[in-house]
Amino acid sequence: MTLVGVVGAGIMGAGVAQSLAQSGHAVRLVDISADALRTALDSIELNCRMSRMLGGPAVDAGEVLDRITTGTDLELLADTEVVIENITEDEALKRDLYPRLDRICQPGCVLVANTSAIPITRIASWTGRPAQVAGVHFMNPVPMKPAVEFIPGHHTSPEAQRTVRELLESMGKKPIDVNDACGFISNRISHVFMNEAAYLVYEGVASAETIDEVFRSCFGHPMGPLQTLDLIGVDTVLQSIEVLYQHFADSKYRPCPLLKQMVDAGLLGRKSGEGFYRHGPDSRGPADSAGRNGHLTAVRSATDH
Ligand code: NAD
Predict the structure, then answer these.
(1) Domains in the chain, CATH or no CATH each
(2) Taking CA atoms, which of 14, 54, 275, 291 is between 20 and 30 Å from 100?
(3) pLDDT per residue over 3-14, tens digit each?
(4) What residues does ligand 1 touch, defined as CB less than 6 Å away?
């Protein structure tokens, strides 16, 4: 059993905390928002109860929740052995957090960055312990996904790599080794797909449903790129594409303006109840309120087909 800190209790932080606790680890879950912590505990409880139905193992929700302590104070992480960071994909926010983690966490603690795109060596440079910083790109939903991208930074020590690998294996996650590069493997490719799919909607070429249908029926993908975009979060995908665009200064990563407008309009995907699709118990199907004005009309006209 390892005492693991999890920072950020959004979609990924909640999933990481659940997976750790399900594997018998003690978890300290920290977020700046008490609301986010409450929502995380609710979703962990629900996911545990539904685990069997979703094809996972039978999970005792009470036991899992008993292993998770929550709080808004980073000091809660002072005695943890590993910290997994899952805060918003905003370089300024992460850059502010890491020096604080470095000060608060004990010297032996390994800091693990769960980022979509920011290079791990850069994150490590914000701390005084680059040998003890590694990257793990978890997949969403975390409890259901059997593999992760494992990204050591330039300075990550063999000991720190072993600690993280052992923790991942104890969680039933297969680490796939990836060299440190912006967007790693998965997002370097998937974010181009998702961004280009958003452009197709923006230009009125096809509806979200039609685009996703092509990926499901022709390519055999379980989900289309716009369903995936809604699952990840429109804000998170936009932030990650912006990281890729700035890093490579290459127009192939130019973020689709529709994504920016959707974020401004609060259409963030599943987490807000609406994105390219409407989500929730009685709101299945394509979104229509995304077409209130300006370019967002493209979503409506394309989904009206
Ligand atoms: P999210 O928006 O659902 O949650 C982010 C959480 O971080 C929020 O609860 C927010 O209150 C909290 N937060 C922000 N600043 C903080 C701070 N300084 N201290 C503590 N908490 C803070 O985001 P998410 O989808 O869970 O993504 C988290 C990270 O995981 C991002 O870096 C993202 O790129 C990466 N990621 C996301 C996915 C995905 O499918 N959503 C997949 C892999 C990796």
Answers:
(1) 3-177 (3.40.50.720), 186-299 (1.10.1040.10)
(2) 14
(3) 999 999 999 999
(4) 7-13, 30-33, 36, 86-89, 93, 97, 114-116, 137-138, 140, 232-233, 236, 240, 271
